[in-house]
Amino acid sequence: MSIEIEKILKKTLPVIFLQGQVIFPGGPLTLELSQAEAIENCLWADEHDSEIFILGQKELVRTAEAETFSNDIGIIAAINQVIKLPDGNIRISAEGFSRGKAIDYVKSNDKLFAEVMIKNYFVSPDQFETGAKHRILSLFEELCLYIPRVSREMVEGIKKIDDLVFLMDSVASNALFRFEDKIAVLGEFDPMERYNIFIDALEREIFNLKTESELHKKVRVNVDQGQREYYLKEQLKVIQDELGYEEDDEINEYLTKIKELIDDEKQQEKLIKEANKLAKIPFGAAEGTVIHNYLDTVLEYPWKKQTTDTLDLNKAKKILDADHEGIVKVKERVLEYLAVKKLNGGKNPQILCLVGAPGVGKTSVAGSIAKAMGRKFVRVSLGGVRDEAEIRGHRKTYLGSMPGRIVAAITEAGVENPLILLDEIDKLTMDTHGDPSSALLEVLDAEQNKNFRDHFMEIPIDLSKCVFIATANTLETVQRPLIDRMEIIEMQAYTREEKLSIAKKHLFPKQLERAGLQKGQLKITDQAILTIIDTYTAEAGVRGLERCMAAICRKGAVKLLEGAEKVSVNNRNLKEFLDEPLITNKKVTAKGRIGIVNGMAYTQTGGDLLEVEAIALPGTGRVILTGSLGDVMKESANIAISYIRSIAKDLGIRESFYRDTDIHVHFPEGAVPKDGPSAGVTMTTAIVSQLTGCAVRGDIAMTGEISLKGKVLPIGGLREKTMAAYKAGVTKILVPKENENAMCQVADSVKEHVEFVFCEQIEDVLRHAIILEGIEEAEPAKRKRMAALSQFVRNRV
């Protein structure tokens, strides 16, 4: 390594003192300063774009006349950023780039400056440098053997340094512990001399640490372990006698309970081992608290405690009918479930999953099943659970550990075989702590849950004795393997008639009781309840309806206390109790309209009627879609345009319309996102109506996906969609032919008052939707289009 002085510089810089610290150049550094003088010097340097001189001091002695410093060696650093902290301190980010020596100190405006000498050396690498690096790294690795908890990242970072000068400074900063050794390395400007000083200091540090380690081992070996244990045990006995602590009685109680409750020999052996370990642990030790908590939790579990099932189908039917209105299919499936369970003795039990919108009665159905079976009912809320340990429990050695929610629920129920409701299973999430959905796979698998292992309990738990019922608002967020382990039962939206019955039989009496009112003091008419259903609530369930009943009861209570003998609620005075209606009823008209078609949508709150509007404008062939439409709905619009282009000649439309005409399709209520393929036939009909100038009947509604060949494809949510159309006054509904088998889901009241037409092709839809009367009175161009359209739909017949 060839070394020569490149140049010597002198600078006058503001001084920053650090007590007990030595900082080396060659990298970024962050300092938090609290001394007023240091803060002022830093702020001055930052304001004047000056470098600073950072001086490490073992101790700083101040007198009235002068200041004495134990060291004049430091580093020159450039300030990158100064941050003022709330407590008055500052935090600086700087870059140290050179070592320096203070040769004089000057005070100016109450600020201390130092005249600093800087020597820069030119270093040319040679074979010596390679050997020097190897020796430094070898000594550094040996030193790390005697230092506890060395950062692996720090070690790897040092090994990657190529520059010898920077390597020496980095190792000295991290491996030398004596202040004097660090100052000696920092204060030598000549790299060759610095290398010799550094190696001596490093070898001395290794020798000291090695000697200290050997002495420590010898002292440990020489301690008489038996004498030590005897002494501690005698002390423990005296302390326990003073406190009146009868440990032997507690241990014997644990052993007795273990033998009474646990039949399996391996499980018994494990728990007895834990109890014996507890007996040997000193009183008050942290490990003793852990074992105490573990044994208490395990023995609180209801081993051998069970309820006897009462699988009486007639009783179950009465309970379900009394607790729930409507939901006939759900009740039938529950009775089938109970019948099979009675006949097969509970072997291979099926896990039920009740899926439906909020407020349709999923949780209450599960409670009714538990009541019908005579089982304890316990609810486990899974909404927002994102840690696998919430299901499987935490290891007992962790601070604050506890069993998982399944074991905790069984302990809460007090029996081994409760009915456990896994509520909101679709709201499970996951993060770096694991996936709770995957943990549930074992819980809900009848072949695996016989030996479920909770991390806290550490012994197998038989979950096959429990009945599990899950609830969800949607299956879109539930893992497919989890769905495969459950039988899905869809709970559909209530009809107006069912909501009326629920309100009269359940909700209104319940709220009367909560308000402290007698049955005859407050009355409400059926028509008023229907008005509330139609104009104050928009939901698939009845929670909003129950809130309205509660509001009416509260207002009624006020009126009764003001002197009224009785309160009656009807349509005329309903606004006195509930203010203005929140929802405007949609009503259709029989009058035909061009480019406007009634579509049907399925939402989380049930069904809805959507007016689809289409307009044709002179332009360049653009297709404009508005109304917060999703990708699937936009694709349906493009399919509709392509299909209409393919049959434009048959419809009497100019075949070049797509070049010079812009088609704008709009779905009102633009703030509400919409998606799905079921509006395909609706958009096709609206565009055909606009391009041909033929009106569409206003008292019909339609739903169905459209294919490129004009085929009407099946859709979902038929029950909810048809209920919304019937409520709006629709007299005829066009649905896909393939949905004919789903008519059993449609409410009887809808089927009684609405005509259903099943369509296979778009021609079937247009034949019933488009008004073709009055061809003779139409203008020639329109007459031609109407004739073509009439011929097109007749060809299908």
Brief characterization of the structure:
The protein is of the alpha/beta class and 797 residues long.
Plain-language structure description:
- With 797 residues, this protein is α/β, with parallel strands linked by helices.
- It is 44% helix and 21% strand.
- It contains 29 helices and 26 strands.
- Strand 4 (60-62) and strand 5 form a beta hairpin.
- Helix 2 packs parallel to helix 6 (191-222).
Given helix and strand content, the structural type is: alpha/beta
* Basic shape: extended
Rg, please? 42 Å
How many individual helices?
A: 29
In what order do the strands lie side by side in the largest sheet? Answer: 1-3-6-7-8
Mean residue pLDDT: 83
**Quaternary structure of the protein:** single chain
Unreliable residue runs: none
**Termini separation:** 100 Å
What level of helicity do the residues show?
40-55%
Largest sheet: 5 strands, mixed, barrel
| Strand tally | 26
Strand content: 15-25%
